[in-house]
């Protein structure tokens, strides 16, 4: 088993302690994570963020990503980024832990911050920018849905 495979299995095992990682796609067998992406850094943020991809590319119509974003350590973050240039909208649904979600309407705009915890949902659309950071010693797990509207 390669070091990467071992690390991926460890990540999946740790996240499985907090949430069920099963997927039941329509008319297909139940399954789990299809790919683990390690982002070090993610959009220029601090620390490491893991994306547990739950769907294969192109599996869902107009869907670019359906994944669990996992921040294991306090201070791990996905830095400010936009989806507007790709005509995307993105939802974050907090499954476990607590963090701080920040958004701004333009690259040097006024930053609005919000504490998020289990059950919180955020939505980003248009040319806005957003970021997310784990603010506690507890793992932060967020389900991410990114859609796009091909024009």
From TrEMBL:
Protein origin, superkingdom: Bacteria
Listed InterPro entries: RmlC-like_jellyroll, RmlC_Cupin_sf
SUPFAM superfamilies: RmlC-like cupins
Protein known as: Cupin 2 conserved barrel domain-containing protein
Provenance organism: Flavobacterium magnesitis
């Amino acid at each position: 088993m390669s070091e990467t495979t071992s690390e991926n299995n460890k990540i999946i095992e740790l996240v499985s302690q907090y949430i069920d990682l099963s997927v039941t796609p329509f008319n297909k067998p139940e399954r789990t994570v299809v790919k683990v992406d390690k982002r070090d850094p993610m959009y220029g943020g601090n620390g490491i963020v893991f994306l547990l991809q739950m769907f294969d590319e192109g599996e869902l119509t107009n869907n670019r990503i359906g994944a669990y974003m996992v921040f294991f350590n306090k201070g791990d973050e996905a830095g400010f980024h936009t989806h507007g240039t790709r005509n995307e909208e993105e939802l974050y649904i907090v499954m476990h832990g607590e963090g701080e979600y920040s958004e701004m309407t333009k690259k040097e705009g006024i930053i609005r911050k919000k504490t998020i915890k289990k059950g919180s949902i955020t939505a980003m659309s248009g040319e806005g920018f957003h970021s997310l950071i784990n603010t506690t010693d507890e793992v932060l797990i967020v389900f991410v849905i990114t859609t796009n509207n091909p024009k």
